[in-house]
């Protein structure tokens, strides 16, 4: 399974009553594929506010995204949690919906050891025929999937990739020792070019909602050997990378990118509690970025 170089972790549009706005969701999917050149969309990930989506909403979102994309891009379903049995169940729901793969975040809060992490991911992977992308984000989960555990998991037939937000040192070690078919994606927009430079495959992005087409140019320039052009595009993108990541301060969440989409003429509604709308100062900051 080739998920491509540019994967967008898609927001979930809501209407004024806080329910999923399906018409806007359809327009957003079209926009991310056609205008921002996403190769794959992740639905019901952290950026999609998965903690506040019901299981029924997730199942419908999986089905809707597959139908709307209609083969124009791949769809990855966020089915990971800190409950192994429930992640297995939701992964089966996603498989029935026809998605192309699943994204499994490290189990947060309960803090298993590395053997527990391995057994958690192994149990989910063995429950499905779908390709699995691991998701290591220590800043959110409070736990790091070690290099050794990632490499053990990479030996499983359908564990095909990782989205890793750890240090470039960790990514370098994984890239050097993983099977050739195992693909390493950064989860940090500002690390897109550095990750490619150390042998990574691509990016699972939030900024691609706004500057995806330019990010695609950056990636292609690097792959074509035009490192100078890639570096120039990185410099142009960098303020958006950092701005969306740092707002709202101190923890990034979908508030900023949802507000930015509205400024771009694609209003996707607000966020669900416990997230709150951008403050006046944050809105002003985002407006200057986009």
TrEMBL record:
<feature type="binding site">
    <location>
        <position position="204"/>
    </location>
    <ligand>
        <name>pyruvate</name>
    </ligand>
</feature>
<protein>
    <recommendedName>
        <fullName>4-hydroxy-tetrahydrodipicolinate synthase</fullName>
        <ecNumber>4.3.3.7</ecNumber>
    </recommendedName>
</protein>
<dbReference type="GO" id="GO:0005829">
    <property type="term" value="C:cytosol"/>
</dbReference>
<dbReference type="GO" id="GO:0009089">
    <property type="term" value="P:lysine biosynthetic process via diaminopimelate"/>
</dbReference>
<keyword id="KW-0028">Amino-acid biosynthesis</keyword>
<dbReference type="InterPro" id="IPR005263">
    <property type="entry name" value="DapA"/>
</dbReference>
<comment type="subunit">
    <text>Homotetramer; dimer of dimers.</text>
</comment>
<comment type="function">
    <text>Catalyzes the condensation of (S)-aspartate-beta-semialdehyde [(S)-ASA] and pyruvate to 4-hydroxy-tetrahydrodipicolinate (HTPA).</text>
</comment>
<keyword id="KW-0457">Lysine biosynthesis</keyword>
<keyword id="KW-0220">Diaminopimelate biosynthesis</keyword>
<dbReference type="Pfam" id="PF00701">
    <property type="entry name" value="DHDPS"/>
</dbReference>
<feature type="site" description="Part of a proton relay during catalysis">
    <location>
        <position position="109"/>
    </location>
</feature>
<feature type="active site" description="Proton donor/acceptor">
    <location>
        <position position="135"/>
    </location>
</feature>
<feature type="site" description="Part of a proton relay during catalysis">
    <location>
        <position position="46"/>
    </location>
</feature>
<dbReference type="InterPro" id="IPR013785">
    <property type="entry name" value="Aldolase_TIM"/>
</dbReference>
<feature type="binding site">
    <location>
        <position position="47"/>
    </location>
    <ligand>
        <name>pyruvate</name>
    </ligand>
</feature>
<comment type="pathway">
    <text>Amino-acid biosynthesis; L-lysine biosynthesis via DAP pathway; (S)-tetrahydrodipicolinate from L-aspartate: step 3/4.</text>
</comment>
<comment type="similarity">
    <text>Belongs to the DapA family.</text>
</comment>
<keyword id="KW-0963">Cytoplasm</keyword>
<dbReference type="InterPro" id="IPR002220">
    <property type="entry name" value="DapA-like"/>
</dbReference>
<dbReference type="GO" id="GO:0008840">
    <property type="term" value="F:4-hydroxy-tetrahydrodipicolinate synthase activity"/>
</dbReference>
<feature type="active site" description="Schiff-base intermediate with substrate">
    <location>
        <position position="163"/>
    </location>
</feature>
<dbReference type="GO" id="GO:0019877">
    <property type="term" value="P:diaminopimelate biosynthetic process"/>
</dbReference>
<keyword id="KW-0456">Lyase</keyword>
<keyword id="KW-0704">Schiff base</keyword>
